[in-house]
Amino acid sequence: MIEVIPAILVDNYKELQTKISKFVGLSRMVQIDVCDGSFVPSVSWPMNKKDRESILPIIDEEEGLPSWDKLDFEFDLMIEKSYEHFDFFAKLGAKRIVFHIKENDILNLRDFLEGVDMYFRENIEIGLAVSSEVDLEKIKTLINRVDFIQCMGIRKIGFQGQPFEEKIIDKIKEIKRIYPDIKISVDGGVNEKSAPCLIEAGADRLVIGTALDQALDIKSKIREFENLSTD
Fold first, then answer.
1. Max intra-chain CA distance, the chain
2. Residues 206, 198: contact at Cβ < 8 Å?
3. Contact at 8 Å (CB) between 26 and 223?
4. What span, in angstroms and rounded, lies between the C-alpha atoms of 44 and 178?
5. Nearest one of 79, 69, 70, 63 to 24, comparing CA atoms
6. Cβ atoms < 10 Å from Cβ of 72
7. What does the alpha-carbon distance between residue 40 and residue 55 come to, in Å, rounded to a whole number?
8. How far is CA 111 from CA 3, 81, 139, in A?
9. Residue 130 bridge partners (DSSP)
10. What pLDDT does residue 42 have?
11. How far is Cα 206 from Cα 226, in angstroms, rounded to an integer?
12. Coil, strand or helix at 163
């Protein structure tokens, strides 16, 4: 069965609480999109400075993320030098962290991955986001050091509801051919039309935002996507 991960992009903590509550009992993992207004134009929680007070009780371990006892959380870091923020998101309660990087940061991320504390490596999965245009040869030293690859199904990241970029299908096939054992997530543009093609290409996980937001019955829609792998 394919793993379906609902994606949440919110402006503030109250909105985070509301959106997370929709997936309790329906999914075991939720992805929280993190945008800083620099790496991508949009800004989201918890990088939105006007809502920083909501973070302190979590960082101080006085409380956890909403429904932390019922869900695990994956943070998709669309922020400058994302690896420098690893400890912060680990303290927020991340079970998975996805790094987006620029080409000039490849060596820095490699050095970071080599030095991550073993406790974190055993308890937090680390993923690397790639676009359809990425040269796998340039990032091979990173792929061998991460737990999974997140292929971006849209060109304009940091915004939900963007059109699907079909070239990512060929990139998934290329990754699976060279690295057959690595897990592949796909984030962006995943819907009823694109999902079967992505699964056939080799995707193991589908990160879905708009298609679930617009669903009249979220539970049925999640099960529909999960069962595509058995069709």
1. 47
2. yes
3. no
4. 35
5. 70
6. 16
7. 22
8. 30, 13, 13
9. 151
10. 92
11. 9
12. coil
The Cα 38–Cα 204 span in angstroms is 30
CB 55, CB 44: distance < 8 Å = no
Phi/psi region, residue 25 (left: phi>0; alpha: psi -120 to 50; beta: rest), is: left
Task: Extract the tokens encoding 187.
Answer: 């984030």
Neighbour tally for 224: CB within 10 Å: 15
- CA gap 39, 68 in Å, rounded: 28
pLDDT tens for each residue of 44-90: 999 987 777 788 888 888 889 999 999 999 999 999 999 999 999 99
Query: 3-state SS of the chain: helix, strand, coil percent to 5?
Result: 40, 20, 40
Calculate ∠ Cα 153-166-99, nearest 5°.
25
Q: Residue 66, preceding bond cis, omega within 30 degrees?
A: no
